[in-house]
Amino acid sequence: MKRILIIGGGFAGCAALKRLSRYPKEVMATLIDRKKEFNFLPLLPDLIGRGLEPRCLILDIESLVTRKGFCFVCDEVVSVDAGAKMVSTGTKQLPYDFLLIASGSETNFYDNEELKAAAYKIDEVADAEKIVAALTQKKYTTIVISGGGYTGIEVATNLISYCRRSRENKRVVIVEFAPSLLGVLPQGIRNNVQDNLKRLGIEALLGCTVLKATGSKVHISNGMVFDEALLIWTAGVKTSSFVQQLPFEKNRQGRLKVDEYLRVQDDVFAAGDATAFLHHGNPLRMAVQFSILQGEIAADNMLRLMRNAELKKFKPLDLGYIIPMANNRSYGLVGGIYVKGILATLLHYLMCVYRLPTLRNKVGLMRTLRL
pTM higher than 0.90, yes or no? Predict the structure, then answer.
């Protein structure tokens, strides 16, 4: 029986675990995560503006792992010695025969400790709850969002929804370093999103960065200073510290480069946001659909190596994407077809219901969601 370690209890790690659980007589798997709970990340902005019940986005990882007949270690990975086949956490040393690195990504403050201390992030359910708690103090007149990507835009529209529901009038400003929002998306979708932001009264400062945050003041590189401002940081992500220390090839985000079978080396695989899989010459974008499929393929290939069978290539199936906007003027591309409005919003939530891990989570979302 082979020992398989999975680092990370997100979409990729859990998908791999479920696949391996079909073969309990062949593998002894252990999942390691510093958090006790799986967080359903695609709906974190909705905790702010849609009034979702936080518990419907959470699942106890240990109960999931033990139900599958495997072991769970709640600890932070400190290092991986690929030569010795050993993973070190804060309290343990765990040997392995095969390793899957599925540790995801986290907010990148670019080594700016001052901004890290001053800003709110949105990496997990607890972060969204902290933002709501800060808003209820009613001491902020402006909310500055650093980063105009998918998450920043979702957060901005949900903040407007929160303010309207609370009958408050707050200025919402997106600060984006690039010359446009969502620069990698088709121009038509970018134009529609930007028009909707204007409709909602959300300002976008392009070609700018947040320089510093002192007290309740947020300073922008164009010279603007916002008083009584709440700062939310969505300006990029990075991989975990232990991943950055690994002696394997990575891209500029610190994501591990893998081959067509998702291998970093013969007995080490990577999946999800920690992975830079090249697709048509570019790293595949971070998305739940790819994380789940990569977790499954990595698990299959570890089993195939054990059986001396031919490995399975990872072939991305891109179902598309949706930019969900809290006023239901959402936009996206699904199956090669442009979708917008309430239809796009409904497709987004239908996919979320489908991907939520348990019936309790699914019912909780449908019961508390406000469209």
Answer: yes
- d(CA 232, CA 65) in angstroms, rounded, equals 33
Conformational region of residue 297, where left means phi above 0, alpha means psi within -120 to 50, and beta covers everything else: alpha
* 123 and 173 share one domain: yes
Q: Are residues 215 and 277 located together in one domain of the fold?
A: no
Helix (H) or strand (E) holding 188: helix 187-200
Q: How far apart are CA 85 and CA 89, in angstroms?
A: 14
pLDDT in the model for residue 123: 97
Residue located via tokens 């700016």 = 112
- Sign, CA torsion 357/359/360/361: positive
Does 219 lie in the same domain as 127?
yes
- Count the neighbouring beta carbons within 10 Å of the beta carbon of residue 312: 16
Q: Tell me what percent of the residues of the chain surpass a pLDDT of 70.
A: 100
Element spanning 129, H or E: helix 125-136
DSSP, collapsed to helix, strand or coil, labels residue 248 as coil
Distances (CA, A) of 223 to 208, 210, 219, 220, 293: 10, 10, 7, 6, 45
Q: Using CA atoms, how far apart are residues 290 and 286, in angstroms rounded to an integer?
A: 7
Tracing tokens 């709110």 back to the chain, one arrives at 120
By CB neighbour count within 10 A (0-12 exposed, 13-18 middle, 19+ buried), where does 369 fall? middle
pLDDT tens-digit profile of 301-358? 999 999 999 999 999 988 899 999 999 999 999 999 999 999 999 999 999 999 999 9
Q: Is residue 192 part of a domain?
A: yes
Strand order in the sheet with 210-214: 210-214, 217-220, 225-226
The amino acid present at 170, given as its one-letter code, is: K
Residue 83 lies in a domain: yes
